[in-house]
Give the backbone structure.
Amino acid sequence: MQLPLTVIILTFNEEKNIESCLESVYDWAKEIFIVDSFSTDKTLEIAKKYTDKIYQHPFEDYSKQRNWALNNLLIKTEWVFNLDADIRVSEELQKELVKIFSNNEEKNYNGFLITRKTIFLGRWIKHGGHYPVYHAVLFRHGYGFCEEARYNQHFVTNGKVKKLKGALIDVVTEDLTAFTMRHNKWASLDAYDQILGEDQISNKTGVKQNIFGNPMERRRYFRNLYLRFPLLVKPFLYFFYRYIIRFGFLDGKEGLIFHTLHAFWYQFLVDAKIFEYKQKLKEGKSMSEPRLNI
């Protein structure tokens, strides 16, 4: 069954990932758009086997790229599904979506919250509070957008949403070198947003913090709570929370590596960059905005 939705996939040098992503949606998505940031590998050559709707647009940050796609692509379907090239739609999620659209259940909602199964070094990271974490990547066209932030941006849906049981498969790394290089860039963006105070809400129309709200609003509430802890101290607390209290140690050796890098190393790097930024500001030096070239 072909579903009345358009899949939008962002790419940049994703020749190792793009085919698996496209294979997971090709048979049932009515339209597939590729928004590429001028790849130099075989990404577009592979993509052309699945769709002729390929556009190239200069990359500034993820939120601007996603919103450019939503505002400029000729989307003819009622629903939009936003993916990255390293994401695959699970068979379970596909079947759930087919059931929803077959029964016209989608008419009761403007969006769906979908969780991800993070695959790290070949292992599903189930614990440490990393699953389930929901994202509003599927919504009715015209009722959703990506909040403006250099890092930690989320899609916002206006209207009623529903959590789905099926998950996306998120292959977070090919190797540790790529993982640490990517997260070093993200840490600069994260630190810059926090210095400017833009991380707390992202913008006036972004995801609101609400402990009693939907999963995304609750997550924003606890992130903002985390940011109030002392600089260079909160990474230790966060790692303890993730690895011990939320049972991250049950994810085995791969989990030890992942939670150490993701919950401690990355968070400590963000704080260290914030410290560096503040030192420069005290010395009267300007703080240049970091750029992310995906």
